[in-house]
Specification:
- This protein is of the alpha+beta class.
- It is built from eight helices and 26 strands.
- A seven-stranded mixed sheet has the order 14-21-20-17-16-24-23, with helices on one face.
- The relative contact order is 0.14.
Length: about 400
C-alpha cells in the first residue's frame, strides 16, 4: 500500500483552518441544461473545505465554459433555497470536537464573515427589496453566490478549471474528475494558491454495455426519451406514481401537487423509492404549464418523467426548478413530447395496471418485478422498461 501525504491548502483564521473555497470538477456533465452541453463539464464548489461538496451539502454548480449560467440561482427564491448555509473547516482547538469528522467541523456563515473569507464569495439578500446584491457591504442575509469570483474576476476559477479539465482529459484519454482547493492571497504580496489535489478517470457507468440503449422494441417500454438528465441504471424501483394525462386538469394542478405530496410522504415513511410520471413541467411556478410541486413533495422519486400536453408543447424544464437536488441525489430526469415525435410514454399500459392506491388525479402502481431505468449520460438518452420485460 502506498500512502500519499498532502499539505492542506488553506489559511489559519484564529482557531479555524480552511481554504477560501474547494470543489470537484468533471469534464463530462450528465445534467446539462441549455445552453450547456455535456462536454462543457461541471464544477461543484463551496466555501471552506471540500467536504461540503462530498457530503452533498448545498454548494454552487456551474459550467467552467458558462460560469454565469447558474441554473440553481434562476430566481431570488432559488438563491435562498440553494445557497450554502454552513461551511467546513479544521478546528485547531479541539482535534475531535462533537459533530466533527477527523477535526473537520461545520461553522455558520457568520464565522466566515468574521474571518474575512465570505467577502470573496458572498452576496447579500435584502428582504426589503426582495433582491440579491453582489458583495457583503450592505446589511442583510448573507448567501454564498461566488459572484465576486465568477462575475467580477476576483480569481480566474472558471478559466483555470476549464484548462485543467481539457489537459487532464487529453492526458488520460477519457473523461476525468479532479479535486481542487484555493487559497486567495491576502496581505502584502501574498499570491493566491490553486491546489490541484486529485485526478482520476470519471466512470460514467460500470455497466457500459447495458447502457447502450440501442433499438428496444416499443412494447417493452414504459418510456423512451432522447432528452435525459442523469447516467446509470436504476433497478430497485417497483412503485410508480402516475398523474394520468387523461385525468389531469390544469385548473386543478395545485390539488394534484398536494395529492402527489401526500403519496410521496407515505412512500418515504416506508423507505420506498418510486418512479414519478406526469404531464407538463414538474415544479412549474405557472400552474397552467405543469404541476407546482416543491422538491420536498417529490423527494422520494428516483427518476422523473415529464410529458408535454396534447394541445400544445411545453418547453422542457429539465428539472431546473430543483436542479440542485436532482444533481446531488443523481435523480434521472426524462422529458418527452410525444406529439412532436420526441419520445413517448405508454399511457395506455399505465392506465391498464391496477392501482394499490388512487386519488382523484394520481394513481399509485406497485409491481412485483422492478421497473428498470437505463440512462446513457454520454448521449442523454434513456429508456424505462416495463416490469419483467
Amino acid at each position: 500500500m502506498a500512502v500519499v501525504l498532502q499539505r492542506i491548502v488553506g489559511s489559519a483564521h484564529g482557531a479555524r483552518f480552511y481554504p477560501d473555497f474547494a470543489g470537484v470538477a468533471r469534464s463530462h456533465n450528465v445534467y446539462p441544461t441549455a445552453p450547456l452541453e455535456a462536454r462543457d463539464g461541471i464544477v461543484a464548489v463551496a466555501l471552506g473545505l471540500g467536504r461540503a461538496v462530498v457530503e452533498g451539502d448545498n454548494c454552487l454548480r456551474f459550467s467552467p465554459r458558462h460560469p454565469r449560467h447558474l441554473v440553481q440561482f434562476s430566481s431570488v427564491a432559488d438563491v435562498l433555497d440553494n445557497s450554502q448555509r454552513t461551511f467546513w473547516a479544521l478546528d485547531l482547538q479541539d482535534a475531535e470536537p462533537e459533530g466533527s469528522r477527523m477535526g473537520e467541523t461545520r461553522f455558520p456563515l457568520e464565522a466566515a464573515e468574521a474571518d474575512g473569507t465570505l467577502a470573496a464569495v458572498g452576496s447579500t439578500y435584502s428582504a426589503e427589496n426582495d433582491a440579491v446584491y453582489d458583495g457583503v457591504s450592505r446589511p442583510g442575509l448573507r448567501v454564498v453566490s461566488f459572484a465576486p469570483v465568477l462575475k467580477h474576476g476576483l480569481f480566474p476559477l472558471a478559466e483555470v478549471v476549464d484548462g485543467l479539465l481539457k489537459l487532464s482529459a487529453w492526458g488520460m484519454g477519457a473523461a476525468v474528475e479532479i479535486e481542487f482547493a484555493v487559497r486567495l492571497g491576502r496581505g502584502a504580496g501574498a499570491p493566491p494558491e490553486f491546489g490541484f489535489l486529485q485526478m482520476r478517470p470519471l466512470a460514467l457507468s460500470h455497466e457500459a454495455e447495458e447502457l447502450e440503449i440501442g433499438d428496444v422494441a416499443r412494447e417493452r417500454l414504459i418510456c423512451r426519451s432522447a432528452s435525459v438528465l442523469g447516467n446509470g441504471r436504476i433497478a430497485d424501483v417497483q412503485d410508480v406514481l402516475v398523474v394520468d394525462a387523461h385525468r389531469f386538469e390544469r385548473a386543478k394542478s395545485a390539488d394534484v401537487a398536494q395529492e402527489v405530496a401526500r403519496l410521496n410522504a407515505a412512500l418515504m415513511a416506508d423507505g420506498v423509492p418510486y418512479l414519478l410520471v406526469g404531464v407538463g413541467r414538474w415544479g412549474s411556478r405557472d400552474p397552467w404549464l405543469g404541476i407546482p410541486v416543491a422538491w420536498d413533495q417529490i423527494s422520494g422519486a428516483r427518476a422523473i418523467v415529464e410529458a408535454g400536453f396534447h394541445d400544445f408543447r411545453v418547453t422542457p424544464s429539465q428539472g431546473t426548478h430543483f436542479f440542485q437536488n436532482i444533481a446531488s441525489f443523481n435523480v434521472g430526469y426524462f422529458t418527452v413530447n410525444p406529439d412532436a415525435g420526441e419520445g413517448f410514454v405508454d399511457w395506455e399500459y399505465l392506465a391498464a395496471q391496477p392501482a394499490c392506491r388512487e386519488t382523484r388525479f394520481v394513481r399509485h402502481l406497485r409491481f412485483v418485478a422492478p421497473v428498470v431505468v437505463h440512462m446513457n449520460g454520454k448521449l442523454n438518452q434513456g429508456v424505462i422498461f416495463k416490469p419483467a420485460s
